[in-house]
Design a protein that fits this description.
Blueprint (H helix, E strand, L loop, with lengths): L5 H4 L2 H16 L8 E2 L1 H8 L3 H13 L3 E4 L3 E4 L4 H20 L6 H21 L2 H16 L5 H13 L5 H4 L2 H20 L2 H11 L1 H14 L1
Antiparallel strand pairs: 1-3, 2-3
């Protein structure tokens, strides 16, 4: 028998909350690559009807977080070493190009907002609040790349960043990684303030490597 009443299970907020919760489960390694997502279990956990679960799984499929296989169902997306390397190669190309294209005339009016976001990140790192670190980190990079006037490039960055969410768990759970990211964010802010685009481009490239390498290392020992 399906669990949950129709009025509480069909709201956009309920669907969004479910997707966000499952996304975080994947990002933080509570759900592992190739782990099956069972509709009946999700209905009970979130107190929703089956069609809501299926809507959520469809949304996660579009986001690149899961894959659905005939006669198997929904599985947390897994990546081969080659796929990981290619995804991060594309992310590096996109994000470094966006850094090169930042409109420095926009920086003075936007830098304080970027700093305010980073202070939220600092507080979350200090508190060991990995969930908030994850969400504020996304906000930091969204604000940073919004300084590039090419909106299509911004959307491409967001899309490929989302596709790598299942790859990031091995680094996000590490306090050392979170502190390194925090330090690099402040270095990016300093580069912006100085107008040093070359330094910013270099930082954007190196900033991506720990999550890529941590996933590859973890999967090497998982296999």
């Amino acid at each position: 028998m399906e669990t949950g009443d129709e009025s509480s299970s069909t709201t956009p907020d309920a669907l969004s909350a479910m997707v966000a919760a499952l996304e975080e489960d994947i990002v933080f390694g509570r759900l592992h690559p190739r782990e099956r997502l069972v509709e009946d279990d999700l209905m009970v956990r979130f107190n929703v009807k089956r069609h809501v679960v299926r809507d959520a799984l469809a949304a996660m499929d579009r986001m690149g977080l899961i894959e659905r296989r005939k006669n198997v169902g929904a599985l947390v997306r897994s990546f081969s070493a080659q796929e990981v390397k290619e995804l991060y190669e594309v992310r590096t190309m996109l994000e470094t190009e966006a850094a090169r294209r930042i409109d420095m005339e926009r920086v003075p009016s936007r830098i304080e907002h970027l700093i305010a976001i980073q202070k939220q990140h600092d507080a979350a790192v200090a508190a060991g609040d990995a969930r908030t670190v994850f969400r504020v980190n996304l906000a930091f990079h969204r604000e940073l790349f919004s300084l590039c006037s090419n909106q299509t490039l911004q959307k491409a960055i967001a899309e490929f960043a989302r596709q790598t969410h299942p790859i990031r768990f091995a680094s996000l759970v590490s306090a050392e990684y979170r502190e390194r990211a925090q330090k690099e964010h402040w270095q990016m802010i300093a580069a912006l303030q100085k107008g040093d685009i070359d330094a910013l481009v270099s930082l954007c490239a190196s900033h991506l490597l720990p999550s890529r390498d941590a996933y590859l290392h973890a999967q090497q020992y998982r296999l």
